[in-house]
Design a protein that fits this description.
alpha+beta, 5-stranded mixed sheet, globular, 108 residues
Length: 108
């Protein structure tokens, strides 16, 4: 479901600078971050803090849910200018009820 017709940008894996505005994603009742996201000039950088290991079904389930949310909120909902929406989403009731929770961190 894509709301806008703007060109699709990408998110790529890499190290997120925690001194800049960024978002952390947690899964379930555990508030520990499993991924970090920052905006780049073109697209987004994602750092996965949880690593999938062979035969670790729980980690695969968590990472799959996080990747699905990343694609939905960063790429599909708004498009290349989705960062303001991401910040807004962090404070919505929908976020607090979701299995994947987004938390905004302002630059330090």
């Amino acid at each position: 479901m894509r709301i806008t017709r703007k060109p699709r940008v990408a998110w790529t894996e890499g190290i997120v600078d925690r001194k800049t505005d960024h978002v952390s994603l947690s899964y379930g009742e555990d508030r520990r971050a499993v991924a970090l996201v920052e905006r780049r000039a073109k697209g987004f950088r994602v750092q996965f803090l949880l690593k999938a290991r062979a035969n670790d079904a729980r980690a695969e389930k968590i990472l799959g849910a996080v990747q699905k949310e990343l694609t939905f909120y960063l790429l599909d909902v708004v498009g290349p200018d989705s960062w303001p929406f991401v910040r807004y989403h962090c404070d919505t009731p929908a976020n607090t009820r979701s299995i994947v929770r987004w938390s905004w961190h302002s630059k330090s």
